[in-house]
Amino acid sequence: MIRKTGVQAPQKLSTAQRPASLPRPSVPEPHAGWRPKSPARVASSGQGVAAQPQGQLSSADLIAQVNANKAASTQSTSAVAEPGLRMSSTAVSPEQLRRMMPNVSAERAAAMAPHLNRAMQEAGINTPKRAAAFIAQLGHESGQLRYFEELASGRAYEGRRDLGNTQPGDGTRYKGRGPIQLTGRANYEAASRALGVDLVKNPELAARPDVGFRVAAWYWNSRGLNQLADKGDFDGITQRINGGQNGAADRRHLHQLASSVLGSGFTGGPVATVDTPTPAFDERPPRVYQTGRPGAGQPPGGAPAPDAGFTRMSNSYSTRASVSMELFLLMLQVMLETFDPESLANDPEFQKFALECGADWSPGQPVPQALAAEFLANRLAARVQAGESPEKLLAELTKSDVAQ
């Protein structure tokens, strides 16, 4: 059972026992916990309502949560949940979700919010700090809820024993899925045991929002990330999710947005139940990568973050070739900058690669940019594995500006 952090209500005093100077709570005690009328008194004294040892809350966080609960509970008295949903004052609304992820449409936010909220409540992601960190990380990993399946084929993960991929086909079978991009047989097996969903036999279920958000919340809890969120250690969360700091700038940007939106607490929103219909999801997301060289053609004020699927695919191939992510990504981007994917259409090696990947492409069709990028990454990794120096390869590519 997941232990949820909550506020401990103090012992209730009778009217006769209550000191005259003690202010009465402004919200019902069983609902949100006792608080003084003046937030300043709590903040200045450093003495707030006691919290459970796991995930201590600061007085400022506590005040924000209580105020939000009070406002949301007032709103929820007139709110009527749609069939298959329930309303909760400690959930994010679709409107809040859109403000935290500006690229999400109103329709998609309405479909995703109930499943996101259910997963967060199951995992004790129940404070603004925790929710802001969780939602920011999911926003980066999924391209703001755009991708629930990794763009690359997963072929780069083949034979990766560190991911538990020990059987032929495990790489593509257990590619990244869901808003946190669960990857590898070992992780699919662990999530299956924890959630009671057979993701080993049915890995595609991890890409469904009703399952994917629960997988993400399980992963979050299994790495102790609520505790890091309570401490404000967002970079530490990134390290545990990513194994490094890839995409750190975009993650931090989304975290700033989420923290600002949730600064005054949850406004309340819908929570999925077992009867909630499963929303439609993209079984085959667009196979397009951002391929420009770092800094090239970027607008003033900063460029968009690299495509999450492209970064993950590059990271996997760089791991296979024992090359740093930064160097491998730079080499690949240099190769792609002047490369025409259509030049591969009649290449027998490319056709064999596409077949092995199970790509939705056949000769005579336009070559997907994503598939071409993965083919070049595979070729680049093979050259390094064969003994070529990555530094010399980069120098060669930079001089020729032609992919060999």
Question: Spans with pLDDT under 50 lasting ≥5 residues?
Answer: 1-55, 70-80, 290-305
Helix-strand makeup class: mainly alpha
Trace the largest sheet across and list its strands.
1-2
Mean pLDDT: 77
Question: Helix count?
Answer: 17
Q: Level of helix content?
A: 40-55%
**N-to-C order of helices and strands:** HHHEHHHHHHHHHEHHHHH
Find the count of extended strands (DSSP E, 2+ residues). Answer: 2
Strand content: under 5%
Write the layout of secondary structure elements.
Layout: H1 29-32, H2 39-45, H3 59-76, E1 85-88, H4 94-100, H5 106-122, H6 128-141, H7 170-173, H8 185-195, H9 209-222, H10 225-231, H11 234-242, H12 248-261, E2 269-272, H13 308-321, H14 325-337, H15 348-357, H16 369-385, H17 390-400
Antiparallel strand pairs: 1-2
Helix pairs in contact: 4-5, 4-12, 5-9, 6-10, 6-12, 10-11, 13-14, 13-16, 14-16, 14-17
Model description:
Strands 1-2 form a two-stranded antiparallel ribbon. The chain has 17 helices and two strands. The protein has helices at 29-32, 39-45, 59-76, 94-100, 106-122, 128-141, 170-173, 185-195, 209-222, 225-231, 234-242, 248-261, 308-321, 325-337, 348-357, 369-385, 390-400; strands spanning 85-88, 269-272. The chain is an all-alpha fold and 404 residues long. The chain folds into three domains: 54-148 and 208-272, Lysozyme; 155-205, Endochitinase, domain 2; 308-400, no CATH class. Helices cover 47% and strands 2% of the residues. Helix 4 crosses helix 5 (106-122), helix 6 (128-141) runs antiparallel to helix 12 (248-261) and helix 14 crosses helix 16 (369-385). 45% of the residues are buried.
